[in-house]
């Protein structure tokens, strides 16, 4: 579940009265997601998503995230635009927490993509990179390979072994990824968390890209590597779907060709992408009480993916 905060009907009505969107009809908490509280809000004029920012988001970054939604949406990407309140503000505060109202987009998240769907996800990711290139906002990636290494070192080998006997093996791996991380590849604003649950689809078409709250400036090929790792395996990372991986990269390259250097870097970028999710999931695993109303995500799902890339990355991206 992801409704961390209960909002009364009066609070919601009062909030909606600050926007030019009609009157509140209903607000339903959305179970999906783990970081923020989300409600599907219906007013007398339309449907919206109301997000309350709860965890991992520095409120100072909100103008970057919300401005990016409007920038990409204005360029024709399937990205929700933000609804500004009657004073022109893209976010408001409720009891010390920031909230934003954004456009509701149709579509469903896909668990088992077809190659055609994966192709279209790859293509829209490349369009996103091209469209974001002139976005004036700046935000550095604070979840790069040095952070992954630091997080795992802070947890320590003993705590890692308590989660899984194989997890401590990720410490030397994280060191080598951080040491060899490429630096001179093309950059833009990247989504950096384009998992299936952050893509809405209608049939084969991508109808929505959501959850830009890890977006930052970084290497575009790294974003493709994150997306490849998130889409091309079954749920627990035990089996690789080569048709999906190829379709994703083919779709990306139908819009933006990878350079020779980007292609050569894909194996380490894919390992680094896995390490980023191993480290955040490990940290959450340790920090989240077992009785919390949030389902913890297993870091081992991405250890298996990383091991796959370690063994097969060179041929896979050749
Ligand atoms: N603009 C949108 N249009 C339609 N549904 C949305 C939109 N934004 C979020 N959702 C729904 O809310 C859920 C959680 O949103 P998300 O931004 O992924 O939350 P979290 O940051 O907590 O992971 C999504 O899985 C989707 O069902
Ligand atoms: N995609 C990440 C988790 C990030 O959480 P989100 O709900 O904000 O997308 C993972 O799978 O570890």
UniProtKB/TrEMBL annotation:
Keyword annotations: Amino-acid biosynthesis, ATP-binding, Kinase, Nucleotide-binding, Threonine biosynthesis, Transferase
Record-listed E.C. numbers: 2.7.1.39
N-terminal signal peptide: none
NCBIfam families: PRK05231.1, thrB_alt
Family: Belongs to the pseudomonas-type ThrB family.
Short name of one Pfam family: APH
Gene symbol of the encoding locus: thrB
Catalytic activity from the UniProt record: L-homoserine + ATP = O-phospho-L-homoserine + ADP + H(+)
Keyword set includes tRNA-binding: no
One function term, GO molecular function aspect: homoserine kinase activity
Pathway listed: Amino-acid biosynthesis; L-threonine biosynthesis; L-threonine from L-aspartate: step 4/5
Superkingdom in the source lineage: Bacteria
Name recorded for this polypeptide: Homoserine kinase
ATP-binding listed as a keyword: yes
Gene3D superfamilies linked: 3.90.1200.10, Phosphorylase Kinase, domain 1 (3.30.200.20)
Coiled coil regions, renumbered to chain: none
Residue ranges annotated for the Aminoglycoside phosphotransferase domain, each copy included: 27-258
